[in-house]
Amino acid sequence: MQGGASKPRRPAGRILWRGSANPSTARTMDTYHIALFVHLLTLIVAASVTAVTKLAAARRLRARTIGEALEWHDLLMSAARLFPVCLVFFIASGAYMLGAAHAPVWTSAYVVAGIIGVGLLFASGAFLGAKGSAFRAVLAGMASQGADRPAPRMAPSALVATLPTVNTGIAIAVVFDMVTKPASIATALGVIALGIALGAVGLLRRPAPAMEQARAA
User: Taking the domains of the chain in order of start, what are their residue ranges?
Assistant: First the structure.
């Protein structure tokens, strides 16, 4: 080669990060690890959103006025919109990593259980979203007659009260399957079923406050 040795080529499909002027300190980060970061980030965001929604639901129950209850409910609904976004990125990043592995893992027990778990979360989220929108319409109708009026005691239906806790159990079960990678599909799905059961039992063991159902005025 003329003019000395040629420069080393950058590895294909990799992003080069230079921490200093010394080439020996250069580090590489491939797209697989970016996908892994996104995969884990979705779990962190989903956990944070869960905390916000639970706080908003608790404050809505303790609201003194209809206007205050509506504000907390709007916060709950706004935060909950991030759940489907997290699920989409969770599936997309997971699918990319499975494809990058170049292995027949789509029929693996933890993958099958994970897809079923995410499907359950999508269905549950759609149901809760519809119920939340309907309940907001009730609160908005009451607020139109006076937002400063005392808020009625509100109690959701048993299914609406149970699903958020069950969803948490499903999410934890999916993560458990991802980490432990059970050998059989039956075992992986059994973990999902156990997460659902523990979520439901955990809610049933809580003391239920005496509240009246909110109705449109």
Answer: 27-204
Give pLDDT tens digits along the chain (217 positions).
Answer: 445 555 545 444 444 444 444 443 334 458 888 999 999 999 999 999 999 999 999 899 889 999 999 999 999 999 999 999 999 999 999 999 888 876 677 889 999 999 999 999 999 999 999 999 999 999 999 998 888 888 887 777 888 888 999 999 999 999 999 999 999 999 999 999 999 999 888 665 554 444 444 443 3
Does residue 66 contact residue 146 with C-beta atoms inside 8 Å?
yes
Q: What phi and psi, each to the nearest 5 degrees, are found at residue 21? A: -75, -15
Q: How far is it, in rounded angstroms, from Cα 9 to Cα 12?
A: 8
d(CA 48, CA 135): 23
Q: pTM score, two decimals?
A: 0.76
